[in-house]
Hints:
By secondary structure, the protein is α/β, with parallel strands linked by helices. The chain has two domains: 5-146 and 298-337, Isopropylmalate Dehydrogenase, CATH 3.40.718.10; 150-278, 3-Layer(aba) Sandwich (Isopropylmalate Dehydrogenase). It has 14 helices and twelve strands. The chain has helices spanning 17-27, 39-49, 60-64, 94-109, 123-128, 136-144, 173-179, 182-198, 225-238, 250-253, 256-259, 270-281, 305-310, 318-337, and strands spanning 5-9, 32-37, 56-58, 73-77, 115-118, 150-157, 160-166, 206-210, 243-248, 264-267, 286-290, 296-299. A hairpin with a 2-residue loop joins strand 6 and strand 7. Helix 1 (17-27) crosses helix 14 (318-337) and helix 8 (182-198) crosses helix 9 (225-238). It is globular. The two termini are 17 Å apart.
Amino acid sequence: MFCPRIAITCGEPAGVGPEISLRAALESVDSELVLLGDATQISGLATQLCPDKKLHYVTAVDLTGLPRQAGRINVIDCPLAVRPVPGKLDARNGRSVLNTLDIAIHGAMHQQFDAIVTAPIQKSTINEAGVAFTGHTEYLAEKTGTPKVVMMLMGPAGGYTLRVALATTHLPLKAVSAALTQSSLLSTLEIIHTDLVRRFGMSQPRIFVAGLNPHAGEGGYLGREEIDVIEPVIHQLRAKNWRVSGPYPADTLFQPKYLKEADCVLAMYHDQGLPVLKFATFGQGVNITLGLPIIRTSVDHGTALDIAEQGLNLADHTSMSAALRAAVEMINASRRVG
């Protein structure tokens, strides 16, 4: 029986990432996991959290000939420059954090890992270490040679799965309209559709598209982006028999009676879609990068330095566990699709 092997990057060492990574790994029984982080820190956590669980300390080379074993937890040492202090950032550890990502990406691109699950990182620490860094998503796209990716968050919401993808991400609101072109929207929807098929096993995914303006522009009186950009793209894809519909007014689209009929909702900008999703699913949500040649999932929260500073057993690892489960489901669906 196939056993997925998944890399987990432990994230910012001064935050909750290492703890929630280990806790989530301890609950996983259907896959083999590889924690990428400082071995000394992980060993110390294991002594306190799971003294009876054996961790296996390996190198990336060791994994090549190592038979997979469900429930096994491996650790690849990515040494920190200085010992981390919970809740206190230290730029000297920024490059070590980035090293965990590099090893995970290289392994996934060479079929050593079937997926990557990432704990939260602190962008400022990496930048202060002298490396220009805007985020996991952009870094993964660059390192895998992917020209465009799409951010999608997913979580349980009242008996159905809510998935919200973004047409634009971290842009000032005043820049959103100019960033929405027929070409960009078309490629975004193509990526969403392709990955819902190949990563989630949906043969005919249903994608609901939100409008940009209040009341979806109200026939042009409140803006023409729906008429000039969004509608032509939807018509083009519907001509291919894709189940894409809209544009819908965002203030009424995000209701259970509509959402439960959609496999994914495409929001036009960050704070149009994500407040709804996080309100409905926070702590259980998963961040997924669509369009990559590899599978990557992550948590729906940040480094939580304040919680880490207070000590162990306070961080909630529910989102990390959900990210692991989502990765396994995507791996299995991808294998079925072929």
